[in-house]
Amino acid sequence: MADLKPLASASPAAPKPPVRRRWPLRLASWSWVGFGLLVILFLVYPFLVSTNFMFLFGKSPSLADLENPKVEQASELYTSDGVLIGKYFRENRSPVALSQMSPLLIKALIATEDVRYYEHAGIDLTAVLGGVFSSLRGEKRGGSTITQQLAKNLYKIRRQQSRGALGYIPVVSTIIAKTKEWLTAVELERRYTKQEILRMYLNTVEYGSNAFGIKVAAKTFFSTSPDSLRPEEAAMLVGVLNNPTAYNPRFHPVAALRRRNVVLDRMGQAGVLPKAEIAALKATPIVLRYHVEPHIDGPDTYFRGAISQFVNAWCDSTGHDMYRDGLKIYLTIDSRMQAHAEEALHERMKALQRQFDNFWRNKDKNPWVDEEGNEIPDFIATQMRRTESYKSLANRYRNQPQRLDSALNAKRPMKVFTWKHDDNDTTLVMSPLDSLAYYKHFLQSGMMCMDPFTGQIKAWVGGLDYRFFQYDHVKQGRRQAGSTFKPFVYLTALDNGYSPCDRIRDQRVTINYVENGQPMEWKPDNVTREYTGINMTLRHAMARSVNSVTAQLTEKVGWENVAKYAHKVGITSPLLAVPSIGLGSGGDVSVYEMVDAYSTFLNTGFRSEPRLVTRIEDRNGNVIKQFDPVQKRAISAETAWLMTYMLRGGMEEPGGTSQALWDYELWKNDNQIGGKTGTTSNYSDGWYMGMTKDLMTGVWVGGEDRSIHFTGSQQGEGGRTALPIFGKFMEKIYQDKELGYTPGHFPKPSVKITKKYTCVSESEPRRRRAEAVDTIAADNLLEQMNNGGGLPDSLKP
User: Fold this and answer.
1) What stretches pass through the bilayer (predicted)?
2) What is the CA radius of gyration of the chain?
3) Cα separation of 354 and 467, whole Å?
4) Disulfide engineering: 677 pairs with which of 134, 234, 492, 719, CB 3.0-4.6 Å?
5) DSSP code of residue 663
6) Which of 547, 452, 559, 549 is nearest to 500 (CA)?
């Protein structure tokens, strides 16, 4: 029988071990890991933000930015005598020292914006926690310190260029920006004292009305300086910082008053002022002396455009910004000489305008006339069609002629220029057509004075009043020069073998030449239509401005050479090489280039590039660029001295055209003056180029259009329109002893003069004041036309 195995025991099975619930332990473990990561992230996060990790956080201020913060600052213009005459800016800001600010201003700022300012290191944790709890309660309360606000304003932390990839997520962007402010604030506190931070803050923040910094704000709202602010004024300026637009007292006076009184209450709570005084100040209304400076501040002057063009070109080439870098630009202009030039021009032009108005009133016609003296029909309508305002109206009322005509004749009050009031303006009811006709009646003028030895421009008056006439008649305007161009003929002669004592007979002549392959002839006239028959010296002929002698000399030296020499000494405008070039009909030129060219004679033959700027400094007063004289030899020293001697003939030769200057107080110390008058056809342009031993001055007078002019030599020649401006100007220069300009002789020649220059003029005896008559540039070509000849193409308008 097989063995049988015993059956398994029937005892109960062993109990299973209990299942452990591990999720609390895992949760705790992950919590610690998460907490650790948060700690690590908290410690690393500032580093990630400051280094712009993977371009996620945007740019933060660098070490160089922190140690040399760049604040937008207005560039300033200074004259050669140290007078601030203007600014260029986008944010109008002029920093001042903390010692130049009212102590009450600083205390008001701390009491209102950051009561624990001297206790924290850039971040006020108490204020931050208070701000968090206030937000949870639905209240709005800021926790930023003054240092944080400075960081935000100084480095534009929240601007587009400071954003990274995470900066476009709404809540995240705010957290990142706030982190940057905190980090930057801490760094600022490490590098600057509390006083320095206050100074930077008050000089940086915006106060509204385009006022940045406390100096400009005090001037804008109260016409005072930061150290002279009254308690209520200081409180208002601190109050406006919270919201420069909403609390602007000029536009929101009620809100500004309420905010100012909040600041006064804070000052009282901080013990800055007694409570009784605080109560009295709160009852005081805001009294403004409001004036906003434009983006280009300073008097409206014609040379500002030339300066802007020059400095902007320099900035483009060097990487500077004229509107934000706080440059100090020092000019060659002397403010005193500029004032004398403006006064002289205004005094003469006011009197001349009165004569002009009476002249045409007596003729019972308007001053725009043709060659025969007849009023030009439809002149104003024609001129109006050339204006930008007409083109704008014509575009608006296209195919609506009646509405266009109505707009051109619609009358409204206009502020216009006038000589009748001291401030040179008045309000009249006019239409656009009336206004244009009104302004066309005015004679215009341009004047420039330069130191011929350095090229420094000392005075520049481009017109009557820049507010009403923006066109600059010094550099922008170009007109025929009349007889003031004649010296270039004599220059060409002297540099090619002639001497001042060589003689040419004053007689009627015919100049034969070829124009476009056709034989032509020209018979120049003297202005008096008379010929003395005198065998004149070149000096006497130039002094008397005799057309016949100049025309003959031009033929002898070659009109092409005259154009070449004019360009050599400073004329830059295109010139036509024509027989009448010496009488000014070779092309239009500016006062600017005529002064430059004549200065070459005084400067021993060196042409000096005219300069308006001497140096440019940075905001700390360090010289960035010095602009030294730029000169090159144009003619020999002997020729230059002889030309100066020739120009003295206008005063020294019998009948010289400059002798009206005897009427002015210019003749102490045996003074010497050289000069040349000029008048163009129909008396359209009057010129005077005057030189002394120190200065070269050019003056032009004429109508806005060539058809607007006097019709006789007694009123319209250059010796009667432009020369008196030079005379008045030099009187004022000599009377102003601070300037240091004195009458006296021209410099002696620096080289041996080999040519004969002292000679007797065969003419009437010299008189103290001869009634000299200047020549007219476009002389008797009409006679040629009347005799069957055509006007040469090169001389046609």
Assistant:
1) 27-48
2) 39
3) 21
4) 719
5) G
6) 549
Question: What is the SS3 assignment for 592?
Answer: helix
Strands 75-78 and 328-331: parallel
Closest CA to 492 of 679, 633, 635: 635
Secondary structure (3-state) at 645: helix
Please count the residues of the chain.
797
CA distance 301 to 470: 9
Q: Is 48 a residue whose pLDDT tops 70?
A: no
Please provide the average confidence, as pLDDT, over all residues in the chain: 85
Amino acid at 12: P
Please classify residue 702 by burial: count the beta carbons closer than 10 Å to its beta carbon, then call 0-12 exposed, 13-18 middle and 19+ buried. buried
Specify the 3-state DSSP secondary structure of 426: strand
> Residue 742 region, left (φ>0) first, then alpha (ψ -120 to 50), else beta?
beta
**559-569 and 486-494 helices, crossing angle to 10°:** 100
More reliable by pLDDT, 125 or 210: 210
**Residue 675: φ, ψ to 5°:** 180, 170
CB neighbours of residue 270 within 10 Å? 14
Say if CB 684 and CB 584 are below 8 A apart.
no
Task: Check whether 738 has a pLDDT greater than 90.
Answer: yes
Cα separation, 436 vs 421, whole angstroms = 20
Cα–Cα distance, 175 to 165 (Å, whole number) = 14
- Give the C-alpha separation, 34 to 438, whole Å: 84
Instruction: Report the half-sphere exposure of 484 (CA within 13 A, side-chain side).
Output: 38
Strands 443-450 and 457-461: antiparallel
3-state percent helix, strand, coil for the chain, nearest multiple of 5: 45, 15, 40
Q: What is the pLDDT of residue 119?
A: 87
Q: Would you state the pLDDT for residue 711?
A: 87
User: With contact defined as beta carbons under 8 Å apart, do 205 and 217 qualify?
Assistant: no
Give the residue with greater pLDDT, 590 vs 792: 590
Whole-number Å distance between alpha carbons of 705 and 539: 34
238 pLDDT higher than 80: yes
Q: How confident is the model at residue 150 (pLDDT cuts 50, 70, 90)?
A: confident
Mean pLDDT of 77-92: 88
What distance in Å separates the CA atoms of residue 349 and residue 355, rounded to the nearest whole number?
A: 10
Per-residue pLDDT band at 27 (split at 50, 70, 90) = low
SS (H, E, C) 121-179: CCCCHHHHHHHHHHHHCCCCCCCCCHHHHHHHHHHCCCCHHHCCHHHHCHHHHHHHHHH
